[in-house]
Structures are given as structure tokens and as C-alpha cells.
């Protein structure tokens, strides 16, 4: 255990390298990212384009066009979360973000499990994003080269995902500056792909008036719902499920903290990046979603859009050249999103390795002498994400019963795992906010440049309430034939969470990584309970 020293003056927190040393770490990564690059990584991970093009059909099918306004709920809820994370990030500007915040706030074992859930969710997200772009790649290849690749074929998915992972990993290895530039270009693509497409659709001519955005179009009744799910005519009941479409979009802003050790003036810029990513993500989502809704066919809009295949059907009214341009933007948005998530995940793995919390920690935390990036962490992350991609090969043709859990037919295993990408994120977020509550209860005083002051308790409690309620809404099993079953496959999400928790618990009990983490709780600014009791 490092020697106990008195807290250093508040001004020392403003120098990130000095602050890192106060926390017991030697600066190893390349601090080259400015505010826009840090913001860009957070924004492209959140990626309104990727989220909307993936979830638009589910949202409008369950809640009708009025589901648009539900976007406000996760945006506002997550802003409270971002404020809590921002205060923690300013005090602890360390790679690994949620893991480090929880470790210092509560203790080694607690922090390790937060990072475990968060890390698995990140790896699953990379796999889901890179496989999600496959239909767009095959469509563009068909338009340009006349190919007829089947986007649902396993070999097509595997080859395209493998190529994407190789390119993303190579770019991330070459340095944080390259990762930042990819993300910055991705922001430009997101702007064109949201505001630009909305403008193009408006110029082409909307098929509905603004009143359409407040209608349900029969989505609340099973007889007229395109999925055959019903809510007894209650839009509030439908909204409780339809809100999951935007809920599945609005996270990723916390990745600004994962790359804090590579960001200049991180104590100030990381909290700002988190908030801006959410605010601009919310604005972009509202604009693009509204435009897509107004551009739906005039006659029987929900059924026509559902039968046509969702967003591609709506955009099919544009010229072929415009469609190809849009496909390019969508592909890069997915690519940029995956690159940012992979970059964030590798910093978490590096942070774990530096603390000796994983097998092969010394090798995992090794930083490339030239590029100053955690190369081995990137390679391992890419390999694990690729292994998750192989889950697409398991797609049962009929329901599979496992005890009281029913695995639905025609759903590949990767899709089932993707549900954990959201529930795992919400769980790790909630645990981190609870850690902030524990820290405040113990008398923790934020010393970063971003502080909530007298609003700290209120903001933290609201953030915890939002995360707890929404996590419950995400995972509660209500049957495969219910609207929520379209998102969480009934018990499958909870079942996957239980398996991941069990695997983590087994490793934890055998290896006891918390014992090594206990040696990395040194904080000269705010001594931890472990130090004070040493």
C-alpha cells in the first residue's frame, strides 16, 4: 500500500498528468485529444443514425408516430446521469471511467463487477454494430458492382464483420489522434445523415401534416398493430414499451471518460462532452425521426412501411444516386460508431490490466512504444467481439425451452445477446450512480473542475431513480407475444444477465482480483477509506 499523504491543493487536479500520478498511475497514453475529438468519440458511439435506422420500425410499430416524443424521456434522464458521471470524471480523469469511479467510490470488488458488466456490454456492442451494417454494405455492393450477396447468410456476415473489425482495430492501434479523426469525420456524417436527410425528405415532399406526429395510427390495438401486439387501446401502456426504442440509443456518452487520459484538460472537457453528446444526439434524433415519420406513405402508413422493410423503404423514394450516397453515410456511421466503442472498450481493458485485475494483465496493459495505444487490449477486444459474431450461426427453427425460459424461434443468438448490450449498460450505469451515492454518504467532496455543488444530492438521486426504473422496464419479462418481448425476448435478457454475472462471480471467487485492486486505491486528493484505515 502506498504511503498515506495529505490531500494536495485543489489546483493540482487541473493538471491531468499530475492528477493521474496522485491516483497512483504513471501517464502512458498519448494526451492529444481536444474537446471536439473527445466529444466526437462520445457522439459517434451514441450515433443517432445507427440507432434510428436500426430501431425506427420497432418504435413506430409499437407506439405509432407519437413515439417520437418519447425521445425526450431518455435524453432528459441521461442528462442527470451525465451530470453525475461528469463530476466523477472531473475528479477521476482516468481511463476505464465507470470501473475507476466505482472502484474509488465504494471499493475494489464493487468496481470490478461494474467494469465486468460494462466491458462485456461494450464488446457485444461492437459485434452488434459491425453486423448491423451488413445489409447496407451488401446493398451498396449490389448497386455498384452487381453483386448478390445475401445479407442474412452467415458467411456474408462473418466476412464483412471480419473486414470491418480489422480496419477498426488497425486505425485504433495507430493512435488516439487517428481514432479522434475518424470520430470527427463521423460527426460530419451524422450531421448530413440526420439534418441533411431530413431536409432532402422535406424538399421531396412529406405525405403528412404535423398532426400525424401526435397520432397512434392504431398501433395500440392488436387487430391493427403490425406485430399483432396490443395494449388495450392505451397509448400510455404502449408508450412504456415504445420508449425502449430511444432508450436503446441514448448511451455511449460516457466513453468520453474512457479516453480521459488521452484528452487535454480532461477535467473540464470530458463532462462537457458528455452533456453535448446527449443534447445534440437528442436534437438530431428528433429531427430525423420526425422527417422519416412525415415521409411515410399516406395510405396505411404503418403497414406499408412494415411490409416494405422500414427506413430503406421510406428512403427508396429518393433517386438512385441519392440512395447510394445515403448508403455510404450509413455505412460510415456504423463504422465510426464501432471504432469509437472499440476504442473505449480497449481503454477499459487497459485500465483493468494496469490494476492487475484480469488474466495476463501485464501483457494486456502494455502500451505500444510508438503509437502509445494499448495494442494488446485492442487485439483481444477485437477477437472477443469476433467470437460473439459467430453466435449468428445459432438460429433455431422452433422455440427452445430451457427450464422456464423459452428461446424464440428464428432469432439468432447474437440478437439475444445484443439485448444485454443495453441492459448491461444500464446496470453498470446504475451501479456507478449508486457508488456516487455511497461516496457522498461517506463524506466524499468532489475536487474536480466540474462540480454539482448543492445540487449534487438531488441530481444523483434523480439519476438513480431514472436508471432503476428504466432498467426494470428494459428487463421485465412480459411474454414473447407482448410488445416488450420484441425488445427483450421475454426472459432471455435476464437469463443472459444471470449467465454473465455467474461467469464473472466464478472468476472473481477463484482469482480474487479485488486483492490486487486494493493496491490501486491511492488518491492524494481524496484519500479512500482503505487508505485511512491502513
Concise account of the structure shown:
With 534 residues, this protein is mostly helical. The protein has helices at 16-22, 35-46, 48-63, 72-91, 98-105, 108-132, 134-145, 154-173, 176-204, 235-242, 244-247, 255-258, 266-294, 301-308, 311-315, 320-354, 361-364, 375-389, 413-441, 456-475, 485-488, 492-511, 514-517, 529-532; strands at residues 400-402, 405-407. It has one domain (10-532): Amino acid/polyamine transporter I, CATH 1.20.1740.10.
Index terms:
single chain, 64% helix, two-stranded antiparallel sheet, 534 residues, Amino acid/polyamine transporter I, disordered C terminus
Itemize the secondary structure elements and their pairings:
Elements: H1 16-22, H2 35-46, H3 48-63, H4 72-91, H5 98-105, H6 108-132, H7 134-145, H8 154-173, H9 176-204, H10 235-242, H11 244-247, H12 255-258, H13 266-294, H14 301-308, H15 311-315, H16 320-354, H17 361-364, H18 375-389, E1 400-402, E2 405-407, H19 413-441, H20 456-475, H21 485-488, H22 492-511, H23 514-517, H24 529-532
Antiparallel strand pairs: 1-2
Helix pairs in contact: 2-9, 2-13, 2-16, 3-10, 3-13, 4-13, 4-19, 4-20, 5-6, 5-19, 6-16, 6-18, 6-19, 6-22, 7-16, 8-16, 8-18, 9-13, 9-16, 16-18, 19-20, 19-22
Amino acid at each position: 500500500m502506498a504511503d498515506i499523504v495529505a490531500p494536495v491543493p485543489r489546483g493540482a487536479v487541473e493538471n491531468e498528468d499530475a492528477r493521474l500520478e496522485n491516483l497512483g498511475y504513471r501517464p502512458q497514453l498519448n494526451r492529444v485529444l481536444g474537446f471536439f475529438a473527445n466529444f466526437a468519440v462520445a457522439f459517434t458511439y451514441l450515433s443517432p443514425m445507427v440507432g434510428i435506422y436500426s430501431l425506427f420500425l420497432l418504435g413506430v410499430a409499437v407506439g405509432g408516430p407519437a413515439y417520437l416524443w418519447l425521445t425526450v424521456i431518455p435524453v432528459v434522464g441521461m442528462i442527470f446521469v451525465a451530470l453525475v458521471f461528469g463530476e466523477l470524471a472531473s475528479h477521476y480523469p482516468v481511463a476505464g471511467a465507470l470501473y475507476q469511479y466505482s472502484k474509488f467510490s465504494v471499493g475494489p470488488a464493487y468496481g470490478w463487477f461494474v467494469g465486468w458488466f460494462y466491458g462485456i456490454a461494450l464488446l457485444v456492442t461492437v459485434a452488434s454494430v459491425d453486423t448491423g451494417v451488413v445489409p447496407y454494405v451488401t446493398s451498396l455492393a449490389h448497386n455498384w458492382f452487381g453483386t448478390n450477396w445475401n445479407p442474412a447468410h452467415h458467411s456474408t456476415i462473418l466476412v464483412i464483420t471480419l473486414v470491418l473489425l480489422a480496419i477498426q482495430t488497425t486505425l485504433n492501434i495507430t493512435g488516439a489522434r487517428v481514432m479522434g479523426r475518424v470520430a470527427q469525420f463521423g460527426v460530419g456524417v451524422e450531421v448530413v445523415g440526420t439534418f441533411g436527410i431530413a431536409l432532402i425528405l422535406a424538399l421531396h415532399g412529406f405525405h403528412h401534416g404535423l398532426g400525424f406526429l401526435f397520432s397512434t395510427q392504431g398501433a395500440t390495438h392488436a387487430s391493427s398493430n403490425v406485430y399483432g401486439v396490443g395494449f388495450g387501446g392505451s397509448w400510455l401502456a404502449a408508450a412504456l414499451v415504445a420508449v425502449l426504442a430511444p432508450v436503446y440509443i441514448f448511451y455511449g456518452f460516457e466513453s468520453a471518460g474512457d479516453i480521459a487520459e488521452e484528452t487535454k484538460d480532461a477535467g473540464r472537457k470530458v463532462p462537457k462532452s458528455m452533456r453535448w453528446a446527449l443534447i445534440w444526439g437528442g436534437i438530431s434524433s428528433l429531427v430525423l425521426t420526425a422527417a422519416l415519420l412525415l415521409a411515410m406513405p399516406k395510405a396505411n402508413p404503418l403497414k406499408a412501411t412494415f411490409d416494405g422493410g422500414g427506413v430503406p423503404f421510406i428512403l427508396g423514394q429518393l433517386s438512385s444516386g441519392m440512395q447510394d450516397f445515403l448508403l455510404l453515410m450509413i455505412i460510415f456511421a456504423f463504422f465510426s460508431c464501432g471504432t469509437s466503442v472499440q476504442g473505449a472498450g480497449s481503454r477499459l481493458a487497459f485500465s483493468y490490466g494496469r490494476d492487475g485485475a484480469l488474466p495476463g494483465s501485464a501483457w494486456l496493459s502494455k502500451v505500444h512504444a510508438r503509437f502509445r495505444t494499448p495494442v494488446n487490449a485492442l487485439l483481444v477486444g477485437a477477437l472477443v467481439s469476433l467470437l460473439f459474431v459467430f453466435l449468428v450461426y445459432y438460429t433455431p427453427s422452433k422455440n427452445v425451452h430451457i427450464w422456464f425460459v423459452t428461446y424464440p424461434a428464428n432469432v439468432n443468438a447474437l440478437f439475444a445477446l445484443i439485448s444485454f448490450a443495453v441492459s448491461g449498460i444500464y446496470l453498470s450505469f446504475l451501479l456507478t450512480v449508486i457508488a456516487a451515492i455511497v461516496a457522498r454518504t461517506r463524506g466524499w467532496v468532489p475536487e474536480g473542475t466540474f462540480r454539482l455543488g448543492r445540487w449534487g444530492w438531488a441530481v444523483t438521486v434523480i439519476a438513480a431513480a431514472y436508471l432503476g426504473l428504466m432498467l426494470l422496464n428494459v428487463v421485465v419479462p412480459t411474454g414473447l407475444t407482448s410488445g416488450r418481448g420484441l425488445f427483450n425476448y421475454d426472459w432471455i435478457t435476464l437469463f443472459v444477465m444471470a449467465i454473465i454475472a455467474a461467469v464473472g462471480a466464478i472468476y472473481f471467487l477463484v482469482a480474487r482480483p479485488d486483492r490486487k485492486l486494493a493496491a490501486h486505491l491511492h488518491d492524494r486528493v481524496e484519500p479512500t477509506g482503505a487508505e485511512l484505515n491502513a
